[in-house]
Amino acid sequence: MKFLIIVAAFVTLAYAEHVCTDREKFLEYRAACASANGVTDEQIEHLKQYQFDLENESVYCHVKCIFEKMDLFKDGTFVTDNVLHQLHHGTKDLDDAAVRADLDSCVEEFKAEEDKCKFAFNVLKCFNGKNDKNLGYLKSSFVAHTEGEHEHAHVHDHAHHH
């Protein structure tokens, strides 16, 4: 029994480690990643409209860069629990099992892709194409925090430097 409590504590701790990205942070990450990868304003506009028709290495790496800064992508793949945590930030009616299944099937579909930038981009494109709701979850997860949440996240952010 004690072992289970310890495991539960570790799982909770790992989940609590992930700080949801609010709009302010997202814009900061997007600017840094666009600059690092040489992404044009026009390409960013495409992505802002959730148009994933761009075949471009800079765009692929830009997307991966943002996911890495958000702690959604580590060691060459997606951190599913962190993705769910981020998506929960924007909606109360998230179907965890369905979202996890969609993400897992997209990761599985593209797992042979050795270019990790292309892998991240294709999984995002696949995930959004699986279900109309996924796009809504993604969009609403970047809505700014309420004041109370923002202060808490801000304090937690300073304690958790990368």
Offer a few descriptive terms.
162 residues, mainly alpha, Recoverin, domain 1, two-stranded antiparallel ribbon, 9 helices, 2 strands, 70% helix
Nutshell version of this structure?
This protein is mostly helical and 162 residues long.
Count of all domains: 1
User: Which CATH top level class fits?
Assistant: Mainly Alpha
Gap from first CA to last CA: 35 Å
Strand content: under 5%
What strand order characterises the main sheet?
1-2
**Proportion of residues in helical segments:** 55-70%
| Biggest β-sheet strands, sense, barrel | 2 strands, antiparallel
Number of helices: 9
Parts with pLDDT < 50 across at least 5 consecutive residues: 6-16, 144-162
Radius of gyration, CA atoms, in whole angstroms: 16 Å
Provide the residue-averaged pLDDT. 79
Shape descriptor: globular
CATH architecture: Orthogonal Bundle
**What is the string of SSEs from the N terminus onward?**
HHHHEEHHHHH
* CATH 4th-level superfamily: Pheromone/general odorant binding protein domain
Secondary structure topology:
Blueprint (H helix, E strand, L loop, with lengths): L1 H16 L5 H15 L3 H8 L8 H13 L3 E2 L2 E2 L1 H9 L7 H15 L5 H15 L1 H9 L6 H13 L3
Helix pairs in contact: 2-4, 4-7, 6-7, 7-8
Would you kindly provide a written description of the structure presented here, covering whatever features stand out?
The protein is an all-alpha fold. The protein has one domain (17-145): Recoverin, domain 1 (Orthogonal Bundle). The chain is built from nine helices and two strands, in the order H-H-H-H-E-E-H-H-H-H-H. It has helices at 2-17, 23-37, 41-48, 57-69, 80-88, 96-110, 116-130, 132-140, 147-159, and strands at 73-74, 77-78. The longest helix has 16 residues, at 2-17. It is globular, with a radius of gyration of 16 Å. Residues 1-16 form the signal peptide. One of its GO terms (biological process) is sensory perception of smell. InterPro entries: PBP/GOBP, PBP_GOBP_sf. Pfam families: PBP_GOBP.
